[in-house]
């Protein structure tokens, strides 16, 4: 049996989607796949036997479904750090040897499997409060670690990879560079990747940025913001790929709005000039802040253009912060997005090389 610990440098890097894509790939090639999340910071109540709810991890539930795993969902997430467990740990020290608990779960899940996929936290900083940081867990179960590194800038990409190497040392088996924009692809493939390889870190794939994978739907925005829908015509599955704020002159706003397609424009309900400028460009929805109702004429025009107009009580800054907490995450509940990510991995990930590093027969 072989294992692979998949983690990321920061949240929303594509870690869970990569875990699923790798699992589905090796399943399709005849391997028996297992899954385990040693530490979860996202408590979720799963329906258990006799109607009793048990604490589990929501991502683990989706992975169980997609990979068709036989284990109970609460067995797929070893330690779920609830507020109660955190307080107990901080006051008294770890209530039990959590590393040993992870090792026991690892051995149980590895039985009869060709490859056990372990999913790490949202960043390499996670886990220290519970005594379960990724480097310690990886060493405890003697697994190799694959790190997903999201492109932010030329310098940050290199720093993130080297920082991962410094933390993980010889447990790091390689990286996948994800969400690389088109204008940075040449630098990443011709300069960054060779540099990383020279440092002894295999680059298994360079995945281009696909905006639709991290987009929100209008329906999701309504739920996140608890927004009131002002327009009669609503296309809930319309994608929002960009967020822009209208806090400038109408002329400056129009110039800016033309640069972004399929966007949500966040502005005050009293900024009729900004709202009209947004409607002249590719806009998926208008988000009006401060509970200020717009002109009925603008609402009518938005309806005619099929652009949802949403009213929220929060101010502009609070609205932006609420959206930024969820924007950019590939929502795995959308199986269409998962298939799209799978195809991206099949095209750009060197599975043959990854297989060789893992050591699967």
Strand order of the largest sheet: 5-2-6-1-7-8-9
What is the CATH-assigned architecture of the largest domain?
A: 3-Layer(aba) Sandwich
Overall outline: globular
Could you say what the CATH topology of the largest domain is called? Rossmann fold
Q: Average the pLDDT over all residues and give the rounded result.
A: 89
Give, in order, the helices and strands: EHEEEHEHHEHEHEHEEHEEEHEHEHEHHH
Structure report:
It contains 14 helices and 16 strands. By secondary structure, the protein is an alpha/beta fold. The protein has 2 domains: 2-211 and 330-358, 3-Layer(aba) Sandwich (Rossmann fold); 216-324, Udp-n-acetylmuramoylalanyl-d-glutamate--2,6- Diaminopimelate Ligase, Chain: A, domain 1 (3-Layer(aba) Sandwich), CATH 3.40.1390.20. Strands 5-2-6-1-7-8-9 form a 7-stranded parallel beta sheet, with helices on both faces. A 5-stranded mixed beta sheet has the order 11-16-15-14-13, with helices on both faces. Helix 6 runs parallel beside helix 7 (185-198). It is globular. The chain starts with a strand and ends with a helix. The mean pLDDT is 89.
């Amino acid at each position: 049996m072989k294992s692979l610990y998949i983690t990321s440098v920061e949240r929303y890097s594509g870690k869970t989607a990569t875990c699923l894509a790798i699992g589905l790939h090796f399943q399709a090639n005849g391997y028996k796949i297992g899954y385990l999340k040693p530490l979860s910071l996202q408590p979720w109540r799963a329906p258990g036997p006799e109607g009793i709810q048990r604490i589990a991890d929501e991502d683990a539930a989706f992975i169980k479904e997609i990979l068709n795993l036989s284990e109970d969902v609460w067995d797929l997430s070893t330690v779920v750090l609830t507020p109660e467990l955190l307080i107990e740990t901080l006051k008294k020290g770890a209530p039990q040897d959590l590393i040993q608990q992870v090792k026991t779960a690892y051995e149980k899940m590895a039985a009869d499997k060709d490859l056990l996929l372990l999913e790490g936290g949202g960043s390499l900083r996670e886990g220290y409060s519970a005594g379960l940081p990724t480097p310690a867990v990886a060493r405890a179960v003697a697994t190799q670690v694959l790190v997903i590194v999201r492109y932010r800038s030329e310098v940050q990409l290199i720093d993130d990879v080297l920082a991962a190497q410094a933390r993980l040392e010889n447990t790091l088996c390689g990286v996948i560079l994800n969400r690389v924009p088109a204008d940075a692809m040449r630098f990443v493939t011709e300069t960054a990747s060779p540099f990383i390889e020279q440092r002894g870190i295999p680059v298994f794939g360079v995945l281009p940025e696909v905006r639709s994978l991290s987009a929100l739907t209008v329906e999701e925005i309504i739920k996140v913001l608890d927004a009131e829908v002002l327009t009669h015509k609503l296309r809930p599955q319309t994608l929002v790929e960009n967020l822009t704020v209208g806090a400038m002159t109408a002329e400056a706003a129009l110039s800016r709005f033309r640069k972004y397609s399929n966007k949500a424009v966040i502005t005050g309900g009293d900024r009729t000039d900004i709202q009209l400028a947004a409607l002249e460009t590719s806009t998926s929805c208008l988000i009006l802040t401060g509970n200020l109702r717009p002109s009925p004429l603008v609402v009518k025009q938005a309806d005619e253009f099929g652009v949802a107009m949403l009213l929220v009580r929060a101010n502009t800054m609070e609205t932006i912060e609420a959206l930024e907490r969820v924007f950019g995450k590939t929502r795995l509940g959308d199986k269409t997005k998962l298939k799209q990510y799978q195809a991206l991995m099949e095209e750009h990930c060197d599975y043959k090389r990854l297989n060789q590093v893992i050591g699967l027969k």
